[in-house]
Amino acid sequence: MARANRLIIGLGNPGPDYDGTRHNAGFMVVDRIAEQVGIALRDEAAAAMVGEGRWRGRPIALAKPLTFMNRSGQAFQALRRRYGLKPQDILVIYDDIALPLGAIRLRENGGAGGHNGIENIISHLNSTDFPRLRVGVGDSFPRGGQVRYVLEPFLEEERPDVEKAIEKAAEAALCFVRDGMLAAMNRYNRRS
């Protein structure tokens, strides 16, 4: 069994066609964390690209599922088994149209809020009890245009807000690793 005390999973869709899209905000955050802590995601295991290492003395793992978003539960369960972790030790990072562009929000548990990736994890786990970090991508789409919107790349004028959100989300995820979920929520759920 691979070793990690905490696992951070960023949700998204695999493949170059989806790079830089709103739906891949989770991938973007995991890439930023990997860069900051010096962990390469180069191993294919448990239906995901994974990387393992140590951060501030703690063994951690990072993962980006190779399943499409609506099948994220398969990767979540395979990764959970690989690392032998409780759901509470796994932070799932994903895009959320219910949050304004650039906002982030941590939750210890809860429903899917209409997000297919989270819905699939809940279905596979048969529980809503796992921590998550939502990255706001805004909701500037016409009625019925949600699917197209989340699969489009961020606009150039949105990039500064997106960069700040990715940076803040990476910090929040590492706070979860270091200090736990309650401390991360207290620190990063404050309104600016």
Question: Key features?
Answer:
192 residues, alpha/beta, Rossmann fold, 7-stranded mixed β-sheet, 6 helices, globular
Number of strands: 7
Q: Quote the average pLDDT.
A: 93
Q: If you compute it from the alpha carbons, what radius of gyration comes out, rounded to the nearest whole angstrom?
A: 15 Å
What would you call the shape?
Answer: globular
- Share in helix: 25-40%
CATH fold node name: Rossmann fold
Report the structural category.
alpha/beta
CATH superfamily: Peptidyl-tRNA hydrolase
Instruction: Please mark out the parts with pLDDT under 50 across 5 or more consecutive residues, or reply none.
Output: none
Describe this protein's structure:
This protein is α/β, with parallel strands linked by helices and 192 residues long. The protein has a single domain (6-188), classed as Peptidyl-tRNA hydrolase (Rossmann fold, 3-Layer(aba) Sandwich). 36% of the residues lie in helices and 21% in strands. It has six helices and seven strands; from the N terminus they run E-H-E-E-E-H-E-E-H-E-H-H-H. It has helices at residues 25-37, 72-83, 116-125, 146-150, 159-179, 181-188; strands at residues 6-10, 43-45, 48-55, 58-65, 90-96, 104-107, 132-136. A seven-stranded mixed β-sheet has the order 2-3-4-1-5-7-6, sandwiched between helices. Strand 3 and strand 4 (58-65) form a beta hairpin. It is globular. The model has no long low-confidence stretch (mean pLDDT 93).
